[in-house]
Amino acid sequence: MSLKKDVYYLNTRHSRIINEFMSDIQDLVQEVTLFNEDYNEFLNLSSSVIDFHNGLSEYIIIGGVNSIDWYVSLPNNLYWTTKGYLSSINANQEIDLVLYEEKLLSLTVDVISKLHKSFIIQPFTDKERNINLN
Asked: Using CA atoms, how far apart are residues 125 and 36, in angstroms rounded to an integer?
């Protein structure tokens, strides 16, 4: 099982950046998880994050959510989901997760920075205001 689920993207830049981030998060979680059941539970939580992200796309169309806020919503919410998951592992295992939490923070800061830079390099066009399932 993996984090590969239908995600709504704004454009191919968004798709590439988000998919790389989700792959990095998946690798990080696999590294610290001892039991397949725990890992599958993380994937279930992540699936809910993706569903929430996809659901927010409807509100952009009607004007309830800012496009930029939605553009970065998946990494933000996946960060908190992963942080909570790491906290639960810390309570159940005898491992020091500080380095993993620092890596998670670094990955999240990097992806948010990449997403914001993509606005500067090539801002939205009218065509990109339509959310597509790529």
From this structure: 43
Give the Cα separation of 26 and 42 in Å (integer).
Answer: 9
For residues 55 and 90, give the distance between their C-alpha atoms in angstroms, rounded to a whole number. 31
Task: Supply 15's token pair.
Answer: 């798709």
Q: How far is CA 114 from CA 18, 81, 117, in A?
A: 10, 20, 5
In terms of Cα–Cα distance, which of 119, 22, 32 is closest to 70? Answer: 119
Residue with tokens 């639960």: 88
Asked if residue 76 lies in contact with residue 115, where contact means CB atoms within 8 angstroms, the answer is no
C-alpha to C-alpha distance for 80 and 77, rounded to whole angstroms? 5
Domain ranges of the chain: 12-129
Q: Print pLDDT tens along the chain (134 aa).
A: 456 678 988 888 889 999 999 999 999 999 999 889 999 999 999 999 999 999 988 887 787 878 788 889 999 999 999 999 998 886 566 677 888 999 999 999 999 999 988 866 554 554 554 444 33
Note whether 107 and 28 are within 8 A (CB): yes
